[in-house]
Amino acid sequence: MRVVAAMSGGVDSAVAAARMLDAGHEVVGVHLALAQSAATLRESARGCCTIEDAGDARRVADRLGIPFYVWDMAERFKADVVDDFAAEYAAGRTPNPCLRCNEKIKFSALLDKALALGFDAVATGHYAQVVEVPDPAGRQGVRRELHRAVDMAKDQSYVLGVLTDGQLARAFFPLGDTTKPQIRLEARERGFAVAKKPDSHDICFIADGDTRGWLGARLGQRPGPIVDHEGQVLGEHGGAHGYTVGQRRGLGLKVPPADGSKRYVVATDTRSNTVVVGPEELLGVDVIEGDHLRWCGPAPTGEVRVGAQIRAHGQEHPATARVDGEHRLTVHLDERIRGVAPGQSVVLYDGTRVVGSSTISGSGRRA
Predict the structure, then answer these.
(1) 48 among known catalytic residues
(2) What does the alpha-carbon distance between residue 97 and residue 187 come to, in Å, rounded to a whole number?
(3) How many angstroms separate the CA atoms of 329 and 48, rounded?
(4) What's the pLDDT at 138?
(5) Which residues are recorded as binding ATP (predicted)?
(6) 49 an active-site residue?
(7) Range of the structural domain that residue 237 is part of
(8) Active-site residue among 48, 49, 101, 296?
(9) What is the pLDDT of residue 48?
(10) Predicted confidence (pLDDT) per residue in 244-271, tens digit
(11) I need a surface site. Which of 172, 183, 191, 239 has the fewest CB within 10 A?
(12) 48, 49, 98, 204: which one is catalytic?
């Protein structure tokens, strides 16, 4: 099979490419140039997709003896991930750019280009597993399912919950059955210089980790009130787009609570440019509504028992999900959870299997 190995320049994608080669595939390494200021070197462990990373990926490809190319997708990445990220915050939502990158870049733009050039599949260094099971419909013999990785501390099935059945059929995740320490050991044994390279983390295009500062530079400062749930003004903010539900730090409230309790952001309204804060108990919700449904296999019908996860490395919560047509999802959680914000993604699981995902459009409480 002819396979494009997406090589970020890190240790995970390096070992993934090596394992695909060991499995007998014809492998070509591809580094995605996503940063528009590509000459910038990595300033910390947060950043990625720099000239330094491209060089690291090339050296691994040379050691493996495989062809290597850099594909410039900076313009597509800016439009589909970076600009989308800013627009979502401007609308009062809290997006996950990693899900959007997997949906729009790695398993859309990259996969589409690979298929157009005659390749059969794309392999990445994500920690997840693709499992082949008998097709109950009997049409294809087997079908592919997306499952959690063996290493739960590194499991990335959440950010892959946007993949469709067709994309899964063309995807390989060679690291899903291995822990991260084992991957670093394997990289060292293979002689890869990236064996000790630190992982990138947080938001790759905000290298210093200052999301509020990044948003302020692009969306501008819009001072407005911070109020409690009864409307009393407690302070001022520089723009409602810089806050998210569940946030406690950096509020700068001028009026302390009478009972000394902690206050959290419970809602943001970008139309009125208002941030609402309140006590912790106001954060709890047990109903989640979603749109932009994506199914990693057959779409469920009616009500189904699932595990619901709303953060990349968050807890899975027992729930009942109901699919209403092609565009609406309602999730009833068994217990209330905190910090659910519009724009986040809820990924549904059946055991270790990823059922699919939805973008959260609202949340509330059952009577």
Answers:
(1) no
(2) 28
(3) 34
(4) 59
(5) 6-13, 32, 125
(6) no
(7) 221-282
(8) 101
(9) 61
(10) 898 888 888 877 777 778 889 998 888 8
(11) 191
(12) 204
